[in-house]
Design brief:
251 residues; 7-stranded parallel beta sheet; globular; SDR_fam; Decaprenylphospho-beta-D-erythro-pentofuranosid-2-ulose 2-reductase; EC 1.1.1.333
């Protein structure tokens, strides 16, 4: 069960090799979390992540999970919940894609959309239903400020995150009063392997800073968390700029 400050004792991570997800998991283990399920495609990276978390004192299980196989989500994720209550689900999988390549290759663009949106809708609904059935829990969804307004530089990725963000907000409204808490996390540019080599955006942050913001959001039972917090004001201004002006910005 979660403690009085909203921190989980058991955690299911969808996207078990995500650097942000692992930073969140390490922080929660240092506080209270004792049981972790890392869900992802079988790989040496997933096994290595599990070993590192076990060394921190957690009981860690790996789960074969593929965001692009929604037909298998109910069976795969449902088995986790049959092993006992899950206090928190962290939905952290996703792919950035390559905008220039994906514009030329619709199949690659669809893969980004299916991973970031379709797969998340499927997994999110399966987990939300299981959390509701047990009567408690948090679903934390890693969104992105890229979803606030589509930019020329990454509108394929941004549009998929916009869909995910809208879905998570609506799901949170649907679950209000059921005992299930949905929290949407909107980081800006995070320094990870996924963004290595890309020009660094203003207000860039780290996985550890996102983890700290997630912990604070859980304690406060926040519905939306911006990382860093200043991005809330920045993105509000950008969202309301006239399109002709926005189009000329170097973003």
């Amino acid at each position: 069960m979660k403690d009085a400050f909203g921190l989980p004792q058991s955690l299911l991570v969808l996207g078990g090799t995500s650097e942000i997800a692992l930073a969140v998991t390490r922080r929660l283990i240092a506080r209270r979390t004792r049981t972790v399920w890392l869900a992802g495609r079988p790989s040496p990276g997933l096994d290595e992540a599990a070993g590192e978390l076990r060394a921190l004192g957690a009981e860690v299980h790996t789960v074969d999970f593929d965001a692009l196989d929604p037909a298998g989500h109910e069976d795969t994720l449902g088995k986790v919940f049959t092993e006992g209550d899950v206090d928190m689900v962290l939905l952290a999988f996703g792919m950035l894609g390559d905008q220039a390549r994906d514009e030329r290759d619709p199949g690659a663009a669809v893969r980004v959309a299916q991973t970031n949106y379709t797969g998340a809708v499927s997994a999110g609904l399966v987990c939300a239903g299981a959390l509701q059935a047990q009567g408690h829990g948090s679903l934390v969804v890693l969104s992105s400020v890229a979803g606030e307004r589509a930019r020329r530089a990454n509108f394929i990725y941004g549009s998929s995150k916009a869909g995910l963000d809208a879905f998570a907000q609506g799901l949170g409204d649907a679950l209000f009063g059921t005992g299930v808490h949905v929290m949407v996390v909107r980081p800006g540019f995070v320094r990870t392997r996924m963004t290595a080599g890309l020009p660094e955006a203003p207000l860039a942050t780290t996985p550890e800073a996102v983890a700290a913001a997630v912990e604070l959001g859980l304690r406060r039972r926040s519905e939306t968390v911006w990382v860093p917090g200043a991005l809330r004001v920045v993105m509000s201004a950008l969202r309301h700029l006239p399109r002709g002006v926005f189009r000329r910005l170097p973003v």
